[in-house]
Amino acid sequence: MIKKFALYLFSVLILMQFSITGAHAHRTQMSITTLEYLPAAAGMTIEITHKIHYHDAQEALLLSDQGATGMSVMELEAQARFALYTSQNFSLWHDNAKTDVTLIGAEVDGDYIYIYQEATLETAPQTITVDCYILRDVFGSFGNHVNIRRGRNVQTLIFQGDEGVKSAPLP
Amino acid sequence: MIRVKTLMSLVAGAGLLLSGSIAQADESIGSGARAFKQLEEILPSPNVYRDASGAPGPNYWQQEADYKIKVRLDEQNRRIIGAETITYTNNAPTSLRYLWVQLDQNKFNNGSISRRTETASKRDGKDSLSFSALRREQSHEERPYGAEIKAVKDARGNDLKYTIVDTMMRIDLPAPLKTGGQTVFSIDWEHNIIQEASIGGRGGYEWFEENDTYIYFLAQWFPRMAAFTDYTGWQHKQFLGQGEFTLEFGDYDVEITVPSDHIVSSTGVLTNPGAVLTKTQRDRLKQAEKSDKPIYIVTPEEALENEQDKETDLKTWKFSAENVRDFAWSSSRKYIWDAMAHHQEGGKYDTVMAMSFFPNEADPVWSLYSTQAVVHTMDVYSKYSFPYPYPVAQSVNTWAGGGMEYPMITFNGYRPVLDKETGQKTYSRRTKYGLIGVVIHEIGHIYFPMVVNSDERRWTWMDEGLNTFLEYLAEVEWEENFPAFGNKTNLLDSITDYMTSANQVPIMTQSDSVISFGPNAYTKPASALTVLRETVMGREQFDYAFKEYARRWKFKRPTPADFFRTMEDASGVDLDWFWRAWFYTNDHVDIGITDVRSYTVSTQDPEVEFPQDRAQKAKDQPEPLQQSRNREAGIKTRLQRVPALKDMYNDNDEFTVTNKDRNEFNSFLDGLKPWQKRVYEKAMADKNFIYFVDFKNIGGVPSPLPVTLHFEDGSSEDMLIPAEIWRFNSMNVTKMIIRDKKIASVELDRHHQTADADFGNNHFPQQISQSRIKLYKSDRKRKDLMADMLVKLKDRAKAEAKGDDKEVPLTPAN
Ligand SMILES: [Zn+2]
């Protein structure tokens, strides 16, 4: 027997669906997300930093609806919008239980916009599951690179095209 | 601060310490030998076709395939109808009983390996389908794709037996084709053209919904001879999408029949301008041949007018191309066309026509930058390789994003966007530099791999990596602080996130299995070459060797070993360790300075040294609190209470100079041989400071060490220690540095020239760094402003979401 579910075509809340397609012959743009697993008094804390090139964020804003058109990434509101957009396109599970992630804020430094999130865990997990869909809805060739770090150990998850959730053991 | 100690004795062999620490943990023993092992052990053996020097061998050979093609664009049905005659010359030392032809359009057939191995996606833990994925499936259902072979015949018109295997077709020859022999055969075929935006590919058509107009761009569009090589026989890797193409050189005569109001851009030279261009257009072309700035052959206004009507009459454009390994073309009634001349010396063509074709949707940014970027690319690339070897170089806007290369013609993306509020077309910074970058990149590919014909299906890095490296050189020469690859000016700062990540594959990975295609096949090899040029080899040696590689393999077929060997052979620099670490492993560059110890040479004279030692001891071992607090509390020691306990040792501490000490010093001086005495006396006069600097190789890649010494007097000095310092021990080394002034701190790689991934350990004394997120949180004011804004936006989104129906449910089928 095959179970049936309703399948949803997805779109994005803050940024409009607008896909720039392209061949793979040229370079691909990507975001870099770092999850830093740190020991805490009880359990662990996770520092989440998303690093997205300023120009990519600016281009996405140019294509966005809901009044963000023409807004510069240098503006606080644009950064906040981008932070919200990012937090809506990034989810985290530990040992298959969804983890609450707190949005801390965002800032532009040099060529990049940084979006910060945080989460806490009561115990060290075995498996980390990530859904990262940053700007892949906007630029066809965009990729998301997620580095999961604990001390010097790293695990990496790479998201491209329409790829969905991926898992890795705690490094 | 670096503390100064005295070095107790001069050891005659102290210089040996330069080559590494003596006692190390077990794992480091032999680590240098492993890192610096000869690369010959993994490279293919040199032979008569490929020399050990990296040059083509005395019996080097390659096949030739010449084409005569007639093709018609059926615009009504968005379809290609073609007939070709191929003349194939067998230069291989073996005879061939069958030939393989590539049918790349078959990738789009529903039965192809590529289609059947596509995988589904999940979102938020659930099965999901995006609009674009569904559109793609719908396009595949709409009509069939893939080459429809109508006839395969020999020169006399007899049918030839053929077998299609996915994206390849084998033609069985009636008799073996001997060495030096030639065979002529023809193929008639047709295929439906894909809509590139919905299916995705390197060619197809683009539909402009707003005014129902089209751009056609035909790539991998005709049955092409598969490569037959000395290193793998017939190219037998099917076209899966990621690994591009390797083909044979040959001459092409192609007749392209399109609606009469179309403008065609194509590989080759137009041989019948009188039949397809107006007098005005031909006059403007003549003018452009003498112009040092772009001149319109078709103006934006003319193109706008042209795209209004839809002619059904046909015209045939004839193109001829010599010594190319592929052929592509584009056709549209939307095209604006501009051209200017590029002048060069020493090449086959003194004047090369640089041209661009683009719709009004691409302006104003295309009129400004495309053709200029084409000329700039030839300027820079020719300097590092060879003069541009063809009569034309074209940039064609065939899509909104992306880029793809063919001989003499490239398909490039980037367009301005329409501002929804003002209705004005505006282009962002990203679009401007993206366009210049993509034009440089794709025109650059005409050198690598269209002329230096590396095997893209096997080794993507050989063309993408080398080309990205040169693209970067050209971008930095376009303007300073060009937001180059990864939108950073320093390429080496953009690669470290990738190189420190897990789940990597080495650069030396077959094209279709490469994970993280962009960083792996483009940025990392380009970074490697940048480190070679700026740090390991130096510009002079690198440029000479790179140019030699380009010269040797121009219009030939190099493999990775030919590149590795040539770069060493021509420069005289051993790079086995470099190729091994950067191309065969997933290691990264991270060198840390773990300790710096500072000394002066001891006089060994007790009268000089002992007082200093006493002072040092007082500094090193402060008085214990148990003792000082006893004194403060007025507690008297037994010695103070019983004076009879006192003797000479209570008056003189361990640092009091005795006659024995003086005698020892004198006999030390007497025992010195004359040359040792000279060394001693010079050291006493110099009063130098001697530093032992410990380096730890954390990332695994042996790296040259660009060290900066910051002196206490405020001056500084740069020095470059070659990577060979790691040859005995590739994990830990100690370098001795002697200077006549005190060093305050030591810094490693201050110009970011080695791709070091962690600058947190590049200083001694170490500089404290805090995580970005902690720093951000510590700035309360800024953090609160952002928090308020987030709340405001969230509330607004909540209000809007009530009537919002962006998620479209699919009804489950029964
Ligand atoms: Zn490329």
From TrEMBL, chain A:
Record key words, sorted: Signal
Signal peptide boundaries: 1-25
Cited Pfam families: DUF6702
Highest taxon, organism lineage: Bacteria
Keyword check for Signal: yes
Protein name: DUF1850 domain-containing protein
Automatic annotation (TrEMBL), chain B:
Record's compositionally biased regions (Basic and acidic residues): 611-622
Domain Peptidase M1 membrane alanine aminopeptidase, first and last residues per copy: 372-582
Transmembrane segment boundaries: none
An annotated Gene Ontology molecular function: metalloaminopeptidase activity
Disordered as annotated region, ranges: 604-631
One Pfam assignment: Peptidase_M1
UniProt keyword Transmembrane present: no
KW Protease (keyword) present: yes
Biological process annotations from GO: peptide catabolic process
PANTHER family assigned to the protein according to its UniProt record, in alphabetical order: PROTEASE M1 ZINC METALLOPROTEASE, PUROMYCIN-SENSITIVE AMINOPEPTIDASE-RELATED
Protein name as it appears in the record: Aminopeptidase
